[in-house]
Write a structure and sequence with these properties.
The chain has 203 residues and is of the alpha/beta class. 41% of the residues lie in helices and 22% in strands. It has a 7-stranded mixed β-sheet with strand order 3-2-1-4-5-7-6, sandwiched between helices. Strand 1, helix 4 and strand 2 form a beta-alpha-beta unit.
Length: 203
C-alpha cells in the first residue's frame, strides 16, 4: 500500500463508515484521498461545500473535518437509504445536524437549484457519465478561488492506456482535457486513491 494511504490514519467512525460502504458494494475515497479532501477544505477555510455522491459518509466526514466549525456540507445522492446511514454516521462523528444539508435526488436535477458563486469547494464523486455536467455546474456554483475536486480520474488505471476506448475512460479523458484547456481553471491531478482532478476557479 502506498505510503500516502498508510499515513492517513482513520478513526473508528471512519472505519465503520467504510465497512458499511463495503457491505453495500459502494466505492468510497481511500484514506489518502480523504486526507487530501480535508486538507483542501482547510486550506480554503471552506464554509460552504457541495458533495455529489453521499455514499455512507466517508468523504463527507473528511470534508467536514477540514471545514470551518460553522461550515455546512450540502451532500447529494440518489439513494435515500445510503443517506440515512450517512446522516447517522455524521452525528456519531460529532457533527450537529445543522452542519449537513442532505438532499436526495439526481445531481443533475439538484445542482441547477443551488445558488451561483456561493460555494468554496465542490467534490464530484459521481458516475463518469455525469462528470461533464457536474464540472460545468461547478464553474457556476464556485466563488472565484473555489476548488473543484473530481474523484476517479485514474479511470481504474486505464487513463494512460491508449487501447482503452470504453465509454467511462473516454469520458474521464474528455473531462480532464476540457479542464486543462479551459482558461477558467488552474488544474492539477493528485494521484491519491482513484485519482483526484483538482482545479481552482480563476478570479
Amino acid at each position: 500500500m502506498p505510503f500516502a494511504e498508510t499515513y492517513a490514519a482513520e478513526d473508528p467512525i471512519l472505519q465503520t463508515a467504510r465497512s458499511l460502504a463495503h457491505e453495500l458494494g459502494l466505492p468510497c475515497v481511500s484514506p489518502g484521498a480523504g486526507s487530501v479532501l480535508r486538507l483542501l477544505a482547510a486550506a480554503g477555510n471552506a464554509k460552504a461545500v457541495v458533495e455529489i455522491g453521499t455514499g455512507t459518509g466517508v468523504s463527507g466526514i473528511w470534508l467536514l473535518r477540514g471545514m470551518r466549525p460553522d461550515g455546512v456540507l450540502t451532500t447529494i445522492d440518489v439513494e435515500h437509504e445510503h443517506q440515512r446511514i450517512a446522516r447517522r454516521v455524521f452525528v456519531e462523528a460529532g457533527f450537529a445536524p445543522s452542519r449537513t444539508r442532505i438532499i436526495s435526488g439526481r445531481s443533475l436535477d439538484v445542482l441547477p437549484r443551488l445558488a451561483d458563486g456561493a460555494y468554496d469547494l465542490i467534490f464530484v464523486d459521481a458516475d463518469t457519465t455525469e462528470f461533464a455536467a457536474c464540472t460545468d455546474a461547478a464553474l457556476r456554483l464556485l466563488r472565484p478561488g473555489g476548488v473543484l475536486i473530481v474523484n476517479g480520474v485514474h479511470a481504474n488505471g486505464r487513463i494512460n492506456d491508449p487501447s482503452a476506448r470504453d465509454v467511462d475512460t473516454l469520458t474521464v479523458r474528455e473531462t480532464v482535457k476540457a479542464i486543462r484547456e479551459s482558461e477558467e481553471w488552474i488544474p492539477a491531478v493528485i494521484s491519491s486513491g482513484a485519482g483526484l482532478l483538482t482545479a481552482v476557479k480563476r478570479g
